Amino acid sequence: MADAGQERIVRAEDVAHMGFTEVVRHAPYIYGQYRKLVSAIERERPDVAILIDFPEVNFRLARRLKRLGVPVLWFVSPQLWAWKRKRLRLVRRFIDRMMVIFPFEAAFYRARGVDAEFVGHPLAALPMPVISREEYATEHGLDPARPWVALMPGSRQDEVQQNLPQMLQSAADLNLNLNLDQKRACQYLLPVASTINLVWIRDEIAAREVAENEKKTGFVALPRIVLVDEARTALFHARASVVASGTATVQALTIGNPFVVVYRVSALTFALAKRMVRYPAEIPAAPDADGNLPVAMVNLIAGRRIVPELLNRRFTAANLTTALRPLLYETSERREMIAALAEARARLLPAPGEDPIHRVSDAVVELLGPTDPAAPRSSATNV
After folding, report:
1. In this predicted model, what pLDDT tens digit does every residue of 321-348 receive, in sequence order?
2. What CA–CA distance (Å, rounded) separates 262 from 260?
């Protein structure tokens, strides 16, 4: 949107934090950025607002926008189907169009009096990467004959700090314990999100390698970690992957790459979420042995657990190695997961001949209504 000419008032990646204690810690800065955005909206008076996900901010904005008489389209639904369903009354009151990217969301909203439209998931509509394995190997100094594993610790620095250490330890353990010769030892790809500083993550990996060397004197415990800049291509060529819970799991799903979902937050955040999350009838989901409901979007789309979830205390290097190992060989677990991922991806596809982004764009034009060719160009606010 910035490339298309939108004025960027606030950077979403600067104010996005996962968890309760994590948000509280950054609350003053987040509120300051919110006030900056509100001032811009009141000054510019946009003709239409496109709110994208981010409910904690966007519900407040929707209220203000409606007071200004600005029609509001919400693309990528807030997860009201998981918690805070009382906010449905706010959707009915302040949102003119709700465009959703998961099929169960449309059924959920319609059953509760909201006219929501499923447009398909943008990632499912993308073509597969075209670069060959050999070209990709040459570009990144990889051995095309060896298995590659993608590590995706998250798109925010605090996520990476929580998730990356166990991923790296598991990578070291896999290459030590799989009884593979040097030619078959795994190589590891780490796609770096544009929101992460490249120098910082290199330093994090180097610090972890030093720590491992101190435990195993004279032996470089960590395998080489190859930093790449595009997640979908890494997933496309990887044998398997480890993915932090979030949008990246949908990337892995739409590529069809077998993977393990991991995530770690503060103990308080995890305990509160466990008490608050409840799924409606539109999402069949059973708790695990610890009483945890599934959180990975891929499992919610499928309506059953098709990929392992290692959350908080279950997210250890040993557990990750155990879950990942069967996905590296031609096992029944690997074949069944690939088939289940293909079924889940099919549920995300838009209607034949449709494109999710084009459909949302058409809906925005519909909200703008008839235009006078002589009138000034319309503006839009995107959050």
Report:
1. 999 999 999 999 999 999 999 999 999 9
2. 7
